[in-house]
Design a protein that fits this description.
Length: 626
Amino acid sequence: MKRLLVLVLASMLIAASLAGCTPSDKVSGTLVVGCPPISGDFIYGFGNSSYDKWVKDLTGGYMSTYAVTPDGEIVLNETVVKNLETSVDGDGNKTYTFEIHDDLKWNDGSPITAHDYIFSILWEASPAWVKAGASSATGDGLLGYEAYFSGESPVFTGIKLIDDYKFSVTIDAEMLPYFFETSYASVRPLPMKAWAPAAKIANEITIEVPKAGQEDAENPEMEEKTFEGTCLVSDSSVWSLESNCQGIAGTERFAPTVSCGPYIFQSFENNAVTLKVNPHFKGDANGKKPQLEYIIIKYINQTTDVDQVINGSVDAVTGVIEGEKIEKALNDEPNTKVTYYPRNGYGGIFIHCDFGPTQDAKVRHALAYLIDRQEVIKNVLGGYGSVVNGMYGLAQWMYQDNKEAIDNLPNFVLNHDKANDLLDETEWKYEADGKTPFDRTKAKPGSEYYRHNADGEVLAINHLGTEENEVTDNVDIQFKANCPYAGIKFSLTRSDFAKLLDHYYEGFTMGDEREFHTFNLATGFSAIFDPYYSYHSDFYHVLYMQTEQVKDEKLDEIIIKMRSLDPTQVEEYSAAWLEFQIRWNELLPVIPLYSNQYYDIYSSKVKGFNTTPFLQWAEMICDISK
């Protein structure tokens, strides 16, 4: 997650609300939330749509060992954790030992135990889960992670099941210090008895392996070897983790049954998800329980989303950015209420940097000079936003610390000459014969005079946007008006959001069917800003992670510097963050368009819809009533 509309994969921290007071004894009413199309991936590890994540959080969240407060502070979740002890061994490895409460339950009434927390790490960090099509960073940073994740070792040495309600995780000394250290120790449960009833957790395993020196032999001699560490085993001769993962990826992914969140999945029909309150849910991090009996999350036309709140068709829509819609909602008070907050994210034109002409950073910069960002903000946001020059949101404290330097980064304004100057330095500097220098004076709308490389290939940019999207409309208008002046053949295709995400995430796997270079999207950040999973070369061509497909040693070094700081080194982290933004701006994997205030618009019948830059409504559902 990457980051799209939400950044889950960077932290693996499942946020829980701390904004409650006392548990509610009364559960009634139905909350209907409108949204764009839902993809249908309802367990963590698949997809990264915000709307699917609402379902994941409501059904599978809240039981992490750590939680996020409304102001973005990461704290111990005392609803889950009864006691925490930490220790450091002689090698510098740091162990977090958790004792969890014995009254946590799954939605079927069965107990949530330490087995479920250890199981979640063994499951999600396994190569079998990756082979099933999932993506996860669970367990990263813990001792023995690399060996287990790669399949080199069948055991995970950095985790330990102590008893039914106690377990430990050990952070590898080589991963410390880390500015967001507690995220390594943030663990949530998975239902072991439901997902892997034939398996059990063992502290060692004895298996047959090739004798030393015969690993590559066609028919090697085998010997028994014992591996000490935590692993999944089974008494069943037909059970395997790989087949088990494949089964869950084909079933629970689309209709989760046993879950731990405040709500239970009931159905996904006609692009609407229905959830019912979980009677066994203990409470959020403040002990507060849900007040609504049902939640329906459904697709609605985005052109009329605010109108549907006003006329009562839905109770709420979130993340509204269009000025006209915002004004309409404000003018409908007191029937319609509005909560607004600085966006912990930004919107832009996201670019695949490993495909076609956009592999060249100069091409990416040229595109940035062919769009009038202020015009987009005026047309779409109606003045409720501002341009950004990097990968940040206006709500981030790092931006506030470095505002002057960030605001002085190259400001991409519409400039045909600048775009042509940059493109003249690329391979795309010829006419169709691949020899005659491109003449910018011939380039204009309707001329069909395009740049080519020496092989006679045309400089073509294929953009994918979505239906009923004002940003897509404006990108279409801007690029079709300005790209001809720079000899770029621009085309735009519209699809539903799910198809766009498929091409965005999986483009590098599509081979000859790959088509699109750019996408207009928006992204939100978690309380943890660690771009390692989003931009480090370690995750180049890793599904759902390094989605812009950037490989840059200098950026890698800065990312490692950022994350290799002690949590107390706030000033140093802020300085490294600025270095990252400067290099990111030079590479420009995304043309940043805007950051803005988000407006959540809801019926006056709804109470407690007090979202923040760090907590969406689904992460604070226990505060909301109707």
